[in-house]
Amino acid sequence: MSLVSNTFLLFVLLALIVYYLVPKRFQWIVLLLFSYVYYMWGGPKYVFYILFSTVTVYSFGRLITRLEETGASKKTLKLTVAAGLIVNLGMLGIVKYSAPFTALFNSLTGTQHAGLNLVFPLGISFYTFQSSGYLLDVYWDRVKAEKNIFRFALFVSFFPQLLQGPIGKFGKLHHQFFEEHRPDKENFRYGMYRILTGFAKKMIIADWAGVFADAIWADMDMYNGIALFGLLFYGIQLYADFSGAMDVVIGTARLFGIELDENFRRPYLATSIADFWKRWHITLGDWMMNYVFYPISLSKWMMGFAKHTKRIFGRRMGRVIPIALADIIVFFFVGIWHGASMKYVVYGFLNGGIIAFSELLTYQYRDWKKALHISGKETWWHIFMIVRTFIIVNLRWFFDRSDTLGEAGYMIRCAFTHFDPSQLFQIPAGSAGTAFVPYALLIIAVGSILMVILGTMQEMGKEPYEKVKAMPAFGVFAVYAVLFVMIGFLGSTAAPRGFIYAQF
Fold first, then answer.
1. What pLDDT is recorded for position 10?
2. pTM (whole model) above 0.70
């Protein structure tokens, strides 16, 4: 059930009616039932995996609590949480990576093993990470283990965020799910604002940009003169697609009185790759920081490595090198989280390598800026850093969009050796074909400019929604009506495209 379908809107409407009609103490049960109906809509066979994750993590959480109450040793607790993580994340690993590893094994050994014939469950990467984070939080005494398995099941399966995130934390969501909610005008107004803006991003900007990006990557030889345009279109598509999905998800949750974490904060206005990852897919970055980076950085072996590097390279570099190494490890996991392909491994190491390199040159950057009399507060410098980061970020998309490293290399080579903008007008743009290309390009350009303007306003502390909120009821209705009409008239007429991040 796509987030941008009439079926989804009717499903949400029905869920809202039931949710606010039942006695308040039963509202969470309504959410749980509708969440499982939503999940099984994509295929009842998928439900086994989410049930497995729910039951195992719940059981290990309760076991950790009982062990703590009986005075179990720290080693026992560590082994218990490790076992829970292995079981939960192991399911993700088997489902997501068994086929690629079987293919790799066959290619190395010349065998023809069939491997496991497993379905790829919807949203598995998101709910396994969310439940694994809960288990670690229980182990670290950040939260108390949930006693009611059905309440815990709602935390794992809440339907707006189930397929694409954001990756939630039990400590923030638990009380929201189970407190009583009444219909609230502000929640409805804000929720509809986010849903409509999300629809506009996805159906107008992302889907039109996808028409061109998909065509260029589908026939690289024919469109080798516009590889750079393909890269730009993909960057626009990916952002508008994923951030649009998050708008719909956050808006839908708000209709039920639930506040989810933001997952984007103007990433294309970032001033460094590290800053970009603090703004793009924020909850994944936060998960990696809390459950991978800090445990690695504070581990005994990393502490020993830090002491060793300080002896060899001095205190200053000895402090930076372990952080750089931890960054590379984290982004290796970020890469393979996206998929079990060598291109994602390269993508992860490329991100981690850039950030690690910047860490290693921190003091040199400071000295260079001082020598050039750059304080870092200059407007021109800020703009330069944004443009520089934008270019680096987009060059990385070659690896994300291409199916193989060979394709990525070919597209990079074409981008810097071929340039023929006329090829753009040979791409059929929706149902009207090539005749609609100029209009589709105009829609993408205007939509992108609007996103930049609205993002800049937010960056300056001027939230566009506050302008809408201050309007009288008729004005708010008019804004929403215009958005709705624009989506209908300007939305892509090509074949509907699913959400990119739903595949992860």
1. 94
2. yes
